[in-house]
């Protein structure tokens, strides 16, 4: 065996051990827990530890498999869960849109500044995430409550005569989500925009394209991968968000993350909670597939 063949064999061996780490992580922390949740979703709730019936029952040397489809039927017939899914989808969609509309100009501006200023601006984007997520959400309660900072400011400026309800509604949820997830939109967009070749815009200008037309004809299509990546990083976690709707949305707010918490920990109805989880994952598979296809197309170019 010559040296070239030995090097190839060595590289293949090392590549195997490097690749086995992410696959092991995926199997250990996603695939196995998912199948456990899937199994529980087909069982019946009971007052016991754990609080659900086993799927396999051994009786008279026979093994019986009992799959309870009633949990899924219940989800599709109970308006509470349907409204929770629709409300979560609506909030996740508009939050992602708001993050994109705010984050794109920010990422564009950062990508087109000098390297020294760019590093400072990126640090300012990342810096708030160095503090506790919970403390930052609580800070918004102090800003949005009736005697909070924002209402006092509006009263002081004479814009309003009495405090307006800014907390415990969808407005507060959108504010909290956009604030918390904006860096997840800005950073992938910045990573994409900073790679663009400036000669493309120069060529568009030489051909007579105005800056706005050059942006929509060159920059925006080239940043499609960054837009999709940022949107997925915002949309998917917002769908299952629990802390922000609970603290800023109030008791009347209905999102699927809150329903999950109530079913698991308040009602101890693990089969229903598991069915809710599986259905939410199936809904999230749609944007994940879109993201995966976008990544494949990007790699083929």
Automatic annotation (TrEMBL):
GO cellular component: plasma membrane
InterPro entries per the UniProt record, alphabetical: MetI-like (IPR000515), MetI-like_sf (IPR035906)
Keyword terms, alphabetized: Cell membrane, Membrane, Transmembrane, Transmembrane helix, Transport
GO biological process, one term: transmembrane transport
Cellular compartment(s): Cell membrane
Main location group: membrane
Transmembrane segments: 20-42, 84-108, 120-141, 171-193, 214-238, 270-291
Domain ABC transmembrane type-1, first and last residues per copy: 85-291
Entry membrane topology: Multi-pass membrane protein
Entry's family note: Belongs to the binding-protein-dependent transport system permease family. CysTW subfamily.
Protein name (Swiss-Prot/TrEMBL): Putrescine ABC transporter permease PotH
Species name: Thioflexithrix psekupsensis
């Amino acid at each position: 065996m010559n040296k070239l063949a030995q090097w190839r064999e060595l590289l293949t061996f090392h590549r195997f051990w490097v690749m086995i780490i992410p696959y092991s992580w995926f199997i250990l922390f996603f695939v196995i827990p998912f199948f456990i949740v899937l199994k529980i979703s087909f069982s019946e709730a009971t007052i016991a530890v754990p609080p659900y019936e086993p799927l396999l029952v051994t009786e008279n040397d026979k093994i019986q498999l009992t799959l309870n489809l009633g949990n899924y039927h219940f989800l599709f017939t109970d308006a509470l869960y349907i409204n929770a899914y629709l409300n979560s989808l609506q909030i996740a969609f508009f939050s992602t849109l708001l993050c994109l509309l705010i984050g794109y100009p920010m990422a564009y501006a950062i990508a087109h500044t000098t390297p020294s200023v760019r590093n400072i601006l990126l640090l300012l984007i990342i810096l708030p995430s160095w503090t506790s997520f919970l403390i930052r959400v609580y800070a918004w309660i102090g800003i949005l409550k009736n005697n909070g900072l924002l209402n006092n400011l509006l009263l002081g400026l004479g814009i309003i005569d009495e405090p307006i309800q800014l907390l415990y509604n969808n407005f507060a949820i959108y504010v909290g989500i956009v604030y918390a997830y904006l860096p997840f939109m800005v950073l992938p967009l910045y990573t994409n925009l900073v790679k663009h070749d400036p000669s493309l815009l120069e060529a568009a200008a030489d051909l007579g394209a105005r800056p706005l037309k050059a942006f929509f004809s060159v920059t925006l299509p080239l940043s499609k991968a960054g837009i999709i990546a940022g949107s997925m990083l915002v949309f998917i976690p917002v769908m299952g968000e629990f802390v922000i709707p609970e603290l800023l949305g109030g008791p009347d707010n209905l999102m699927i993350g809150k329903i999950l918490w109530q079913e698991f920990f308040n009602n101890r109805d693990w089969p229903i909670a598991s069915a809710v989880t599986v259905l939410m994952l199936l809904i999230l598979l749609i944007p994940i597939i879109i993201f995966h296809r976008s990544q494949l197309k990007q790699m083929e170019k």
